[in-house]
Design goal:
Blueprint (H helix, E strand, L loop, with lengths): L11 E4 H4 E3 L17 E4 L8 E5 L1 H6 L20 E5 L7 E4 L4 E2 L3 E6 L6 H12 L20 E4 L9 H16 L6 H4 L7 E4 H4 E5 L10 E7 L8 E5 L9 E5 L7 E4 L4 E2 L3 E6 L11 H12 L13 H6 L1 E4 L9 H10 L7
Parallel strand pairs: 3-7, 12-16
Antiparallel strand pairs: 1-9, 2-8, 3-4, 5-6, 5-8, 10-18, 11-17, 12-13, 14-15, 14-17
Amino acid sequence: MILSEFDVSCWKTFRYDQIFEIKKGYYNKKPDHLFDGGNIPFIGATQSDNGITEKYTIDEISLFNRTGTTEPDKIKNKIFRGNCITVSNNGSVGYAFYQKDDFTCSHDINPLYLLNRDLTPEIAMFLITVIECDRYRWGYGRKWRPMRMPSSQISLPVNLNGKPDFDFMQEYIEKLWKEDVSDRPVSKETMVFNTSDWKPFRYDFVFDVKKGKRLTKEDMNEGNTPYIGAIDRNNGVRQYIDSIPIHSGGAITVNYNGSVGKAFYQEKPFWASDDVNVLYPNIKNCPEFRMNAYVALFIIPLIEKEQYRYSYGRKWKKDRMEQSIIHLPVKSDGTPDFEYMGQFIKSLPYSSAI
């Protein structure tokens, strides 16, 4: 869902505590694994796997307390009922997920329960999109703890009575899902692939890595050229400037500073800041490599899987990136199979809008 599709000028602003019952996560350390067959999710401050970092049995959760010792706390304090949205208030701040089933979590999580209405997966998906639009407001120095969230504000579509229009949210997501999957059945084989026969390649074998260029605020005037900065949202576009683009479209931009490792596909000509590396196909080594949105959307998640290796103390600068390794599917001759990458993305149910 893209909020730019909507006219949000008629939306209304609400406090979070007007929309949600906001719970505090449990000041909890992960218990040891003592038994087999755990199926209770432990939700942590991560941005992947629906927030799930481990799964435990009820006995494992019961045995351990907040200090990590075996003196048990009350289990009712540790288990949260499902059908809610969990939001990270630390770590990957502002990432939100729908939890269908009961779970346990750390104190880095705020569980949100919808007031005066049953939450559905569809309404949750709409609300999560809106919640995550405010991720940029929070960081390690400004956590979104439960005492701060109630007074935070969220803008939502409203009905004629000025109340949140949950019926609209429900119907919009239902329609979106129906349109995206209609007449495009996806087989199990399409969604899951075996990566054991993929091969490693140096970045400078696959890509021609270019560096962005510094531009001071004094030299920035409003215009039509996308200016790509080291941010994690808005496709990397920090603003639009009147300078002549220094990079052609058909490239992937990767932050080596700021939100390190965050990558975006740039379709149109742009200007990239000096905190950004720009990846073009290395036609000399990979003559069949033609960058387009489909191939880029296959490669970008592989790039972003390496984010954990880099931080403010270890930036992903051009020379280091060129020596980095990326694993890719290959053809029978051992060369990257870019056609397969593009066709795989095209086969997915959410690719019709590309």
